[in-house]
Amino acid sequence: MQNEALIWGVGVGPGDPGLLTVNAIKHIQACNILAFPTEESGHSRAYDTVKDYVKQSSTKYPFILPLYQTQEQRQQFYQQQARFFKSVAEKGQKVVVLCEGDPLLYGSFQYVLHELIDSRQVGIVPGISSVNAGAAMAHWPLISGNETMLVLPATLDEEQLKQQLQFCITAIILKVGRHLPKIKKILSLMSGYEQALLIENVSANGQRISLLHQVCVNEVSYFSLILWRREKND
Fold this sequence. Notes:
By secondary structure, the chain is of the alpha/beta class. Helices cover 28% and strands 21% of the residues.
């Protein structure tokens, strides 16, 4: 079914154009309409990652994600997006929707996919996530053998995070931003805290890897993650 698709969610990785997949480039070069998220300033990390592969004849369709709107407003936004993409596909044109990282790992395209779930016109190109890229850059093995790993958003409240972290071996905490003090407070009471890493802007401009316990600021980029592993004898 994917070969028939005219609406594609394409993962572009965490920011380094070198981490684009061959399949992602193929679809970007073949699309009629290229849709991508932007900040309110108009800047788009996703577009910057792929700009060298975009053909001039492609129509650009930037959009601002409804991050701070109500659930009902967000649902209406993605329904409108889905209707637009479907109308374009019904004319035989190909739409590519860029997603930072992977479309289905905290990716906004999954909400469009939900609205088009019965359509054979939808395809997905997976992307390298910040989890994989960050671990590779830090030489940090994620899991092995019978170990377990959790991927968590830093946006959870303190009690939820404590409960989730209580029994896992390894945790990747995403969307750190202004939640850094809360995460440090929780992990400082657990083994492995002094080895935990903070990675800011994985593979993009401004990338920095730091020991979490040595970070003194109260806020970092939203595009930051924390790698934490419980000590094995704990």
